[in-house]
């Protein structure tokens, strides 16, 4: 039985994606031990991996980190000199994922934009608690910005969107600053007792209880209050932020984070635009080849990244 209101909000293609995903990563996956969670998540990502587009070349390397070398994966487009670099921070609740989980997504961004893409394999919780993930993301950004000589767009989905926003906030006004940020269904830290966290508390693919669990694991059981590096929406000063593009999924407890974040940036003089993708769920990037709505959203993401890398702002707000 498909629960209301999702029985009408989601089309058959999206339900097929949800059902297939549940075969690899069930709704109660957070009840599994950590090793099992990572195993089923890796299986899910592998099942939806589309492979790299022809001509994209890849190089794995490491850069110095605050605690240990940070593994990175660089994607280069088939032809031409890239005009910008996309630093990609993967999702996975801060406890899952790595260079392979989002490999084809990064490769397709590279191929479609013609930009260099660098993926970051930041340390995961609970082995490494906050702020370890942020520290690795920041160190990777500083290294890439310094070495590439290109404008750097910070991009991330879910937990990676959180980290991208935190790095943008921490580096504003510094010597190396992102030229833009593109956040895809990001976890920015709104109140889990209100708004879309109540309206979509039991949404397919991600629940409010899941988000609370991830925050507790990431923090070691005590999520900090008022820390913008953990909760980007906790920042009082969102001035001098780079041009910001946010994509949210309609049927996602996180869907309220993006609009709130963009309104606050715009209120402090910045450029920010949020697109809520109707009829989609958290994690829809994996559905970009099977769900029409997800394919259209991915095309909008590519268009946005391409424009921002060229220094353009094609949005009215």
Provide a quick synopsis of the model:
This protein has 317 residues and is an alpha/beta fold. The chain has ten helices and eight strands. An eight-stranded mixed β-sheet has the order 1-2-4-3-5-6-7-8, with helices on both faces.
Number of strand segments: 8
Q: Indicate the CATH topology.
A: Rossmann fold
What spatial order of strands do you see in the largest sheet? 1-2-4-3-5-6-7-8
Mind telling me the C-alpha Rg? 18 Å
Under the CATH scheme, the architecture is: 3-Layer(aba) Sandwich
Shape: globular
* SS-derived structural category: alpha/beta
Question: Into which percentage range does the β-strand content fall?
Answer: 15-25%
CATH fourth-tier homologous superfamily = Alpha/Beta hydrolase fold, catalytic domain
Description:
This protein is of the alpha/beta class. It is built from 10 helices and 8 strands. The chain has an 8-stranded mixed β-sheet, sandwiched between helices.
Keyword list:
globular; single chain; Rossmann fold; 8-stranded mixed beta sheet; 317 residues; 10 helices; 17% strand; alpha/beta
Topology:
Blueprint: H1 6-9, H2 12-24, H3 34-47, E1 57-63, E2 70-76, E3 85-89, H4 103-113, E4 116-120, H5 132-148, E5 152-157, H6 159-171, E6 180-184, H7 196-199, H8 208-219, E7 244-251, H9 257-267, E8 272-281, H10 292-309
Parallel strand pairs: 3-4, 3-5, 5-6, 6-7, 7-8
Antiparallel strand pairs: 1-2, 2-4
Helix pairs in contact: 5-6
